[in-house]
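for the writeup, i need someone to sanity check this before i put it in the appendix. the sequnce is what the collaborator sent (i think, or maybe the updated version? ugh). structure was predicted straight from it, no edits. if anything looks off just tell me and ill rerun, i have time this weekend
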Amino acid sequence: MINLVLLFPLVACLILFIFKNRFLNNLMINLYAVIHFIVSLALCCDVDFLPMIKPFKFFAVDDTNRIFLMVMSIVFLAVAVYNIGYLKTEKSLTKKLRHYTYMVLFFVFSMTGAILSSNLGIAWVFIEGTTLASAYLIYFHKTKHSIEAAWKYVFICSIGIALAFVGIILLTVATGDVNTLFYNDLYANAASFNHFWLKLSFVFILFGIGTKMGLAPVHFWLPDAHAEAPSPISALLSATLLNSAFLMILNVFRVMIFAECDAYARIMLLVMGFISLFVTAVFVYHINNYKRMLAYSSIENMGILAIGTALGGIGALAAIIHMIGHSLIKASFFLTSGNILERYGTKKIKAVTGLLNTDRKTGWLWIASFLGIAAFPPSVLFISEFLMVKTIFLKKHYILCALFLLLLTIVLYGLGKAVIRMAFSAPKAEESAKISTDKFSWTMYAPQMIMLTIAFVIGLYMPVGIVKIILEAVRGF
């Protein structure tokens, strides 16, 4: 099954190259999304419907990565369905759309490889692959701002990947005679590693892969890239790419735990987490671009994941729950922003008024996405943030607890101010003539509705199976 999800996109690209047909673009993306979802669901449920095929030894499903794979599959399937309606409104040439499909398939292939990799070196290769694929997708509209965002993304992420590579080299120095980068071997032998080189390697890996994860202060590519990429790609960048990088950091952090160097690693994660929250709180209030606003919200939520991981125990459990909720809700938020952009033709917050009057379904999806990301009950993010605050308080970090709540409140106010203005303000007469009245396909509404429903339902009741998978994912943290 692992072979299937890794080989299908390569075969699909070959078919698209031979049969240059506009219809095949959407077909291949949606077919891959369905296959990806079925395989991920089977792997999560320990069902192997292709038992005769032996998987590549560099890829495996374990207790930690299966939840990341499942979340990615759900988001990718939602994006693929949304993409059907989105591409109908896209006036680009067939050749350009074919290149778009190539890169979407390669992008998801790279993220899947990074998540399923059982070897740190292979995971690094696939994380680099995500940069190459998504750079073209960010540049897709070929405007002045999109090319600037793409170059910034490639430049900053390439530096980050290089730093991570140095960290991997330092990790091999720390391992001594253990000449392997397979995670299981690193965990088994971590107690014998040189602590000095191991700590130094973690610094480089955290800053390097933290660049891809969008942690401050190495987040500079993220606001521009998310703002300029097509909305389906922004959803994948925020809801799946950042998670892939987070998983890689988690795997290295586990090595630090087995080597009994976790206190050092927790401090670094905690610092970068709070810096991420602070950066978002500073910038989100003054932003006049709603896609950039959502990008800064992603930086904030990656900071929350880092803080939860650093806290460990219930905090780590909260981080995984938060990862699930953020992925579903933020993907919905970005897809809905695509509807707004198609309707109004602008990314400026001040230019979008009377959203509920213009497109009621998009308006309510916009509001529901905000309520979800702001952790209003019954959003699953309420549970994760409540558990995180409780953990900080029980550990008697009272100042950090107050700071955490203060920064979240500032971010909530910044997001709420923009969302409420866009949705409830009276439409301007001079702007009404510029608003598109085209009827959108149901595929541009249904994916958001489904993801938000999941995020709110599991906030009320989380099935035993999901709880079991989450508990297995955080075991040892």
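The mean pLDDT is 88. DSSP finds 20 helices and no strands in the chain.
thx in advance!!
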